[in-house]
Design brief:
Distance between the termini: 56 Å
Shape: globular
Number of strands: 0
Largest sheet: none
Order of helices and strands: HHHHHHHHHH
Strand content: under 5%
Radius of gyration: 21 Å
Amino acid sequence: MAETPHQAPVAGVGDKPADARLTLAVLGAVLLVCVLVPPVSTEVGRYEAFEALQFALLAVGVPALLATGAPWRRLRLATGPTNVGDRYERTVPGRLRLVDRTAAARRRHREPARSLMYLALDAAVIVAWRLPPSVDAVARHGWISVIEAVLLVGAGIGLWLELVESPPFIPRLGPPHRIAMAAVAMWTIWVAAYLMGLSHSSVYRAYAHMAGRGLSLSADQAVATGIMWFVSLCAFVPVIFSNLVTWLRSDEDPDDALFRLIRDGRRRAQL
């Protein structure tokens, strides 16, 4: 009798991990819509704090929730992992879809340089959208926020797929590298926020703060800085600590692993 092929499990009611992921994905989609429509989109043209909130959610919050929520199978872009062997490595033959093929290609190419490319791309997009011309354009022309959303969310998801499991995607790097990537990404946003907060005058000409009306310049910038710090802190710190715990609990001595990483980095630099 022919062996019945294993079927991909279907997440249904009572499947708590899948339900939790779905909740995160839905929350990410809701936040994406909320920051692009009134009242947030209206206030973006008036206050730097709202612009910072929109930016932080598009650059960090929404990509983190969508990647962690892994909505690929529910969007019919993937068949999902099977119950045969490794839950991510094997899928049902003949049913591979776009995300399945992409995830399989990523598993074949685990070079750190590929992961660093996504980090560099995300950092470049973040810096580009914090430049004064970009922020002023968003404040004056609300429709540009849609372009900003596409670029920030797209680059952000690429980065977060290197940091968290998003079935059928799995991170290509080990915990030490993920800790470093998360820290660099977080500090990129923190530095941008810090430079804005230190300025005694607004670096964005689109925002005119009039005495006695709304937030003062200093208060607006302080709130904007705090929002960017807080959102990135909430997103990246759990990734850093969870990977740190995983690293410390592994059978491998963390000091030996760290020394090997440094040695490998020096060797690649000499090549």
